[in-house]
Amino acid sequence: MSESAVGSWSRALSRVVTVALLAVVVWGIVAGLTQRPAGDRLYEVSSRIRCPLCQGESVAESPSASAQDITEQIRQQIAAGWTDQQIEQFYVDRYGSWVLLDPPRTGGRLLLWAIPLVAITGGAIAVVSLLEPGQRRNRLTYAAAGLGAASLATMIVLGLIQRDPPDEAAPPLTTVAETRDLSEVGNDEMEAVVAENPAVVGMRLALAQRYVEGGDLEQAYRHTTIAIDLPATDQEYQRALRLHGWVTALRGAPESGAGYLRAALALSPDDRDAWWYLARVQFSGLGDPAAAKETLAEIDTTAMTPDQRAQYDEFVDLVNATLLTLAEGELPAATTSSAP
Amino acid sequence: MTARRIRIALGALLVAVVAVAAFVVMARDSDLPRSPLIGRAAPAVILNRFDGTGPAALATPGTISVVNFWAPWCVPCRREHRDLGALRAAWDPAKVQLVGVAFQSDLAEIATFLDEIGDGVPTVIDNDGIAAIEFGVVGVPETFLIDSDGVVRQRFAGAIDPEELQRAIDALLRESALE
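Predict the joint structure of the above. Result:
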């Protein structure tokens, strides 16, 4: 090839490179201008969740109806005060860790990260070993060794980073569905569903809870008495005992109610709500603030939302004040506070 | 070039090739992993029936529940709907319940679909996608088999094989002594 031909190729190549670089710069500016503002939490969270039906893009980017449903749900979760981690865990619990666009690098996925590095290292060693001994081979040997060591170190660091436990437990599986769906279903409709599915414990308990919140203890009691006799999973039976105990106590039988609550706690000693109900029953129903104080101590160190903590502290203060008053020879003031 | 160096090179190359092959296989397998719901309590979701007779729960504890997510715009759902309807006709409703969840579908299109295919599958409407999200649905059709204790036991991605579904139900019936 002549010198002029080489120069012509060189100029053409430099033009192509210049145009390509300009295109990249323009694309970067456009992308930057059209990007959502930082701090848009809905966008930030939804851009980390993979659209399950389209899979190649996040729910923030996908125009599909499925992605819009999830975005709407995330909006509600944010409004309800969920943390980013709780929201991500909600989707991982249902779809698996692949639903996160940056899935945790643990187990099989850690291996997925490691394997390409192993392949590159193996390839580098293969090339180096074929070279004649000399300075170039030495340099490549060091480079391959460095790559291998860096791969190993990266894997160890990634593994350690991902081993940190989540700081808050994910909310129960049904939280959002119940909030959205059941709020649109009236008690009469719920009664019809329960009548049609008399053995569905969860639905019956949800209805009983509604009656408790609406102050209709007789209707609540009617359902909880049935619920505790139905065939159920251990978890359902425990929830039935807890609600029945609370309703029984509210109806004026605190001794019996406390018995059901203790039975619920025997099945699930970590049930914070059952401890809370029992403390209420002991204090208000049985007039035993000392027992209530001991019961409250059981849940002092459990995770609570700020509202729950404030409510807990307020009740502890009341119990302590009552104990102090009793010690001074006065009767405690009655309390009417109900559910936690 | 010594034979030793060639052996080292071939060994290293083999490691690289095996790693690439493993990566390809693992990356493919991770596309649709096992549903995290399997072995856990089925989500408690209540949806309105398409026929306007009120709300219905997707899973009915005490019976085996088959929850099928479908849509009128889904081609494989057509044959599957007929298969499910035929299977259901032979099931004892006290032992096996079937519910079809019409996913993100226009009501008129659902009606047209059921007119054409038949209404052998009791249908509820999931226009907000709540049930699909709760069950972690990644496409239609998709079917979940829930045992009589309300625990999700199996997920069928894509159109079901009627014989395979029936075998799975028979196994659950034997297991739960409902047979």
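The radius of gyration of chain A is 31 Å.
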